[in-house]
């Protein structure tokens, strides 16, 4: 019993188009596989990638997500992806600041969900969540005659005592001004990113994830799975095409082989 | 069914507020307590680090006091999220421990009285360890450990605050 193979032209057409369609993925698989096989020689684990487009693939925020504010005359309070930094020193997990109230010895950074008390050198004294304050959400920070701060909240306005321990309801007028942003220089931005991202990811990690397709999430992994299937089909169609050729009967008037 | 399972799994992944901290403080005292802060000196920072296994983030800790009774609201990470817990202490002995806000996806059983009641009457020995043993809960080991550490810290802070 002989196996009925498709026509050679059909096999070659499938072979050709599948080869073209999967070429890019197969090249990626081959190059990354070769490189990963020689990790020590190429020192892939010692090359650190800091490209924002690559780091964003790993859920690491880039420089464009930084918001910076002036504090203590010449220092910077930086917010990046739910984390606050004093210059490049991590302070606490917090939302963006709504107000900075500088005082001696305590300066206060007011966010929508907590008050952060800082010492003059930027060290965190205390983080007080809203659950320990007389309101649920802070919406703005105002001032009375540019001196006494006013916390504008969902439960009304409050003024703090000198130690920021107790808060009194306030019902008179006050002014609210938006907290001005500052531009960080490149060195400061780099320092914050390094503190946040922990120095980036190694080229070995990126190549490994490119090889498996994980760098592009579910879609990338599926594409690499399909590439693996394509290799199997290409091998099958290649052998099929060769078998089809070898089974073709020789023409009766063909010249004898020399 | 998968959707139901996912919903069931996610039920405890969010922030569960069992008791507002302000309500806990109100319930812990018969009279209006005074709000105070305990500044962490170099020695106190060293002893809190010894108890927690890591430095306490901050330079002072807020507490409430009336007479010999103090109340503390402290946070410690179980696995990845902080557990907010309230402690009431009098005469160097724990009167009450209550989980106020739980944010982890597993281990929320630590909120139930069968666990928290074990802490009533607990005291510290000279090595800053609990005098009595606290029974754990299967599947909630990290949360149990976090709350045990916090209990030791609260008792130690009470000693320092009322010294």
Unreliable stretches of chain A (pLDDT < 50, length at least 5) are none
Radius of gyration of chain A: 32 Å
* Total beta strand runs of chain A: 15
* Category by helix and strand content of chain B: alpha+beta
Count of strand segments of chain B: 6
Tell me which oligomeric state these chains represent.
heterodimer
Strand coverage percent of chain A: 25-35%
Overall average residue pLDDT of chain A: 85
Global geometry of chain B: globular
Q: Provide the structure class of chain A.
A: alpha+beta
Biggest beta-sheet profile of chain B: 6 strands, antiparallel
Succession of helices and strands of chain A:
HHEHEEEEEEEEEEEEEHEHH
Instruction: Provide the residue-averaged pLDDT of chain B.
Output: 88
Figure out the total of helices of chain B.
5
The main pleated sheet of chain A reads as:
5 strands, antiparallel
Domain count of chain B, please report it.
1
Name the chain pair with the biggest interface and residue counts per chain: A-B, 15 and 16 residues
Summed up, what is this model?
The complex is a heterodimer of chains A (258) and B (163). With 258 residues, chain A is α+β, with helices and mostly antiparallel strands.
What do these coordinates show?
With 258 residues, chain A is of the alpha+beta class. In chain A, 36% of the residues lie in helices and 27% in strands. Chain A folds into two domains: 27-59 and 200-217, no CATH class; 61-197, no CATH class. Chain A has helices at 8-37, 39-42, 52-57, 186-197, 203-212, 217-247, and strands at 48-49, 67-71, 75-80, 83-86, 89-93, 97-101, 107-111, 114-118, 124-129, 138-144, 148-153, 156-160, 167-170, 175-176, 201-202. In chain A, the strands form four sheets. A five-stranded antiparallel β-sheet of chain A has the order 13-12-11-10-14, with no helix packed on it. A four-stranded antiparallel β-sheet of chain A has the order 2-3-4-5, with helices on one face. The model of chain A has no long low-confidence stretch (mean pLDDT 85). Chain B has one domain (16-34, 63-161). In chain B, 33% of the residues lie in helices and 26% in strands. In chain B, helix 3 packs antiparallel against helix 5. The longest helix of chain B has 21 residues, at 141-161. The model of chain B is unreliable at 1-12 (pLDDT under 50).
